[in-house]
Amino acid sequence: MAFELGSGAARAGFRLVEFAEAGSTNQEAIAAARAGDAGRCWFVTMRQTAGRGRRGRDWKAPDGNLAATLLLRVPHDPMTAATLGFVAGLSLDEALRTIAPDLQLKVGLDGFDGAGAPGRADRLRLKWPNDVLLDGGKLAGILLEAEPLTEGGFAVAIGIGVNVVAAPEGLPYPAASLSSLGYAISAPRLFVALADAFASVLRVWDEGRGFASVRRLWLDRAAGLGEDVAVRIGDRIVSGVFETIDEEGRLVIRSSQGKVRTVAAGEVHFGAVASAN
């Protein structure tokens, strides 16, 4: 088999199901939950043909990219379960920093690249609610899908798609792949680090009781914090400054008039794009 669990994930009781090709690893996970799977199981492939991103967009994984879904059974309300998206983002961020430490920082030729402290800028950033950015381009997307269980609680499929060898084209936003930036990291190698990191961050999350700690870690790596932000919610646009995320993971925006609003879902733009919106 191409994929395997890391030692940390194996010790924590996670399992693994690998596919040579899958339509959607999220759908495979949900089908397993309906058939009685106990959860804590990864469903992975390097070729996904019918995956979905947020807002119904296609998310296909060509040969060599990573499509991985973790199935969990949780007793929580949907709001608590939704914070698992932040666990997933942190886990992938940590996995990438572990196997490619030089992804963390970049240094401009003159010692200053125009972002953050002089001479140093974090190349990896987490974009609310569920994206991982590398050099400002979308490297990975995360999609949570849940359904109630007859015995109570929810089955949650936490899908993670990573552009390892190729990024999709024709998107309305910049995209990046590890390969295009010179990183020869295979999907199986990345998955080992991801599974181990997820096991660690999930312990911090502690069935939702530790979300305050997850929230602090996420904010340390957040894209656009303190910058202009515009969020499209249906036909409306909410704009202002990205102040924080609240205790439920919602985006907190302060308008130019000082009004504070919280946003639970929407399409986010930062910087110049936000100003134009």
Q: Which SSEs are present, and which pair or pack?
A:
Layout lengths: L6 H5 L3 E5 L5 H10 L6 E5 L20 E9 L3 H5 L1 H16 L5 E2 L14 E2 L1 E4 L3 E4 L2 E12 L5 E9 L24 H19 L5 H10 L7 E6 L2 E10 L5 E4 L5 E4 L3 E4 H6 L1
Parallel strand pairs: 1-2
Antiparallel strand pairs: 2-3, 3-9, 4-5, 6-7, 7-8, 8-9, 10-11, 10-14, 11-12, 12-13
Helix pairs in contact: 4-5, 4-6
InterPro entries: aa-tRNA-synth_II/BPL/LPL, Biotin_CoA_COase_ligase, BPL_C, BPL_LPL_catalytic, Transcriptional_repressor_C
GO molecular function: ATP binding; biotin--[biotin carboxyl-carrier protein] ligase activity
Keywords: ATP-binding, Biotin, Ligase, Nucleotide-binding
Features:
biotin--[biotin carboxyl-carrier protein] ligase activity, five-stranded antiparallel β-sheet, about 280 residues, seven-stranded mixed β-sheet, globular, Transcriptional_repressor_C, aa-tRNA-synth_II/BPL/LPL, ligase, nucleotide-binding
Question: Mind explaining what this structure looks like?
Answer:
It is built from 7 helices and 14 strands. The protein is of the alpha+beta class and 277 residues long. It folds into 2 domains: 7-219, 2-Layer Sandwich (BirA Bifunctional Protein, domain 2), CATH 3.30.930.10; 228-276, SH3 type barrels, CATH 2.30.30. The strands form 3 sheets. The chain has a 7-stranded mixed sheet with strand order 1-2-3-9-8-7-6, sandwiched between helices. Strands 13-12-11-10-14 form a 5-stranded antiparallel sheet. A two-stranded antiparallel sheet has the order 4-5. Helix 4 (84-99) packs across helix 5 (187-205). It is globular. Mean pLDDT is 88; it is low at 107-120.
